[in-house]
Task: structure prediction
Amino acid sequence: MKAEIILTAQGHAGTMATLQNEFTCHKLFEAADRAAFLKQHAQTVRGLATFGPMPVDGKLMDALPKLEIISNFGVGVDAINLEDARKRGIIVTNTPDVLNDCVADTAFALVVSSLRKFPQAEAYLRAGKWASRGPYPLTTSVGGKTLGILGLGRIGEAIAKRALASGMKIRYHNRHKKDAPYSYDPDPVTLARNSDVLMIVTPGGPETSKLVSTKVLDALGPEGYVVNIARGSVIDEPVLLRYLQEKRIAGAGLDVFADEPRVPPEFFSLDNAVLFPHVGSATAETRKAMGDLQIENLRRHFAGQPVLTKVA
Ligand code: 8YV
Result:
């Protein structure tokens, strides 16, 4: 008998195919009446495969009283209420490590793109301005600048490696000082003050909500850049927008936003922001590896074995 699981959203095609092959899957995202759908499957569903920002909270868990495991596609589990899961004895898993290199590539691409304005330079050429207006204005070098990593974990380390290879210096702030060969700053404001580029890699969720607000951006200053590959919730987005418009910081590179996929249109006209549509881990290879790990956790759980990457 295949275990019954719910799929919260349309995921990577290969992952969806394997899930549907190995488990009896019910697609919440196709249900016209969500409450009726949950009621219909309440007594048989034992697993949830979740994708993206849809909240998985105590209310949803209570609607599925036989739920044993929530297997997330992605390393960030901020959409899942871990405390609610713990209280109900529900296992939560994620997909760490397999995406470190791709996310670090994206992060460092945003550093280079923000300082060198390569996307803007390309748009300048495509608009025919090179011939009519002359060379693109000078930009800012990456080498010699200081990258301040807010949240030095495994992705942060992979970003640091890339930044070091380009001649950057590294500092970081975590809640606890790590055994790392980089200078430590005791709080995000000091880190921002000591950095040319502030790189946000912290997990999302209530603990880091709007951690980067006026004080941090003021400390970064008019020559400073902020790059966010973590979660939009970590920055106070309206404040960031205003600071970019008023040139209170030099620029931003953003892969994540507060209310994805909706991005405030005021961002689109900024010349000092490079904007990516949350593509941090979005390669065929990495998405397959994430899906494989998500599935392996479910497979193991339903075979009575310990899961590989348990968060709660
Ligand atoms: C994915 C991510 O885009 O892993 C994460 O936390 O944000 C990304 O890798 C997302 O999880 C896809 O659902």
Summary: The chain has a mean pLDDT of 98. The chain has twelve helices and twelve strands. The longest strand covers residues 45-51. The first helix runs from residue 13 to 22.
